[in-house]
């Protein structure tokens, strides 16, 4: 995967094609995480039901998954449904779950063609049996793929994930004196995956909404005013280019250049 793979997919002379030529493929983020926000406001501006915003957002999911796979990103995580989202009207929740099942059925062939492995992060216990069945089938079907890992954060909450990891440590009888950051990270949903290098949030909101609280400790954050249904490959490429211009210090300080002759 790389430049030619993206150019073969992006329309010739498009903004995405122009942007991808500026990407440094030696400095790609290994893991991109996205808070998909603004579906409801997108629909409200068009005087449509909120579920239509979620429906329109499927095209944005499709675009983001494909361009990330073609770039050569190792992991893409999309925040699809939080533990707090159960508070939304039942009709909206049912619509979201129906769209999720439809997406899995329609996109499974594309995931296979692009060697993408689907993984659900979050608690599946509260999900309806038909939704869990679709998710299990898709994860099993793509389980042997060795390309990009596509995490769908579903019924997910960052605090809940940390509590669940602590409970797993207790049940396993882990000695508190031997529990360090690396071992604790191995108890999270994202065990074995790199932490996100880049966190994208759409719709202009400046908050992280209980998303990957442990994992984003040193993530670079990029916020766009674009609502999720309007988010396309060019926006993701803009985020990658912005990321590549940043100096990642991980809490350190920039070294002063040596003065020759002192």
In short:
With 262 residues, this protein is of the alpha/beta class. It is built from nine helices and six strands.
Notes on the structure:
The chain is of the alpha/beta class. The protein has a single domain, classed as Decaprenyl diphosphate synthase-like (Undecaprenyl pyrophosphate synthetase, 3-Layer(aba) Sandwich), CATH 3.40.1180.10. Helices cover 42% and strands 13% of the residues. The chain has a six-stranded parallel sheet, sandwiched between helices. It is globular and about 60 Å long.
Please render the helix and strand layout as text.
Elements: H1 3-9, H2 15-20, E1 31-35, H3 39-45, H4 50-71, E2 75-82, H5 90-113, E3 117-121, H6 129-142, E4 149-156, H7 158-171, H8 181-185, E5 198-201, E6 220-223, H9 233-244
What's the average pLDDT? 94
Extract low-pLDDT stretches. Answer: 255-262
String of helices and strands: HHEHHEHEHEHHEEH
Strand content: 5-15%
Return the CATH class.
Alpha Beta
Helix content: 40-55%
Cross-sheet strand order for the largest sheet = 3-4-2-1-5-6
Major sheet size, sense and barrel closure: 6 strands, parallel
Q: Total helix count?
A: 9
- Total E-strand runs: 6
Based on helices, strands and strand pairing, what is the structural class? alpha/beta
Kindly list the characteristics that best describe this protein:
262 residues, alpha/beta, Undecaprenyl pyrophosphate synthetase, 42% helix, 13% strand, disordered C terminus
